[in-house]
Amino acid sequence: MLPFHPMALLLKYEGYPPAVVAATLIHGLLIYIIFYNPVMRNDLVNLDEPVYINATTAEQNPQRLRRLQELELQRAREAETQRQRERDAAAQRAREEEARQQQAQREAERLEQQRRESEIAQRRQEEAAAEEQRQREQARIEQERLERERQAQIAREQEAARQAELQRQQALAAQQAAADARAVDTYVAIINNTIASNWDIPPSARNGMTAVLAIRLVPTGEVISVEVVQSSGNAAFDRSVEQAVRRAERFPELRDMSISLFEASFRNLTITFRPEDLLR
Prior knowledge:
Blueprint: H1 6-12, H2 18-36, H3 38-42, H4 62-197, E1 211-217, E2 223-230, H5 235-248, H6 259-265, E3 268-273, H7 275-279
Antiparallel strand pairs: 1-2, 1-3
Helix pairs in contact: 4-5
């Protein structure tokens, strides 16, 4: 059997708690010697500077120390490994970021190239469309000019034809008016002669007397009404001219007259009676 050694206890418990207990006992002994030893109190001297006593614990267990060193070394290696991983990860991220930026730059350059090509193509299309529109506009303007010239020529021809027709109509109207005037004069003379042949002039009739009669006729020449619209001042004279018209009753010559001339001049006929005119 091996003899007991106090360090065996320390090694058994890896220095704890026996090492703490031993350190505590040593510190207590030192304090007792310093403060409670009568011999030493008598020999106390005043020192200008305080005396410090450093106490240390018992030496650590070599195995634990090695283990701690190994653990520290392992932690250092792990920390270094972790830092290396972080550096590698940072480098990888940097490479990835650089690759991403390069890819983004290439993509941006590609898009920019596409945009420039698209702008060039769009500009060419716009220029082609503008040229086509310009040509269409020129063709439209030329067509409109030709159409205006054609319309102006048609208008000139129509105006010339209208003027010729107007002149012809005016000539015909003048001829018709002259013919109508002659016809009116003829029919008025017939009516006057018919009325004169039926007029019995009263003895009281005098030159200067004037009676105006309004006579309404129909296209057959029949008299449908007679009215004195202006009296001569002599009742016998007025009655005589009215009776002369009523005796005539009808003017058959009017049947040969055109309706338009009849409506214009003989539908409502006004005749002025003067004794001196009818007696000539």
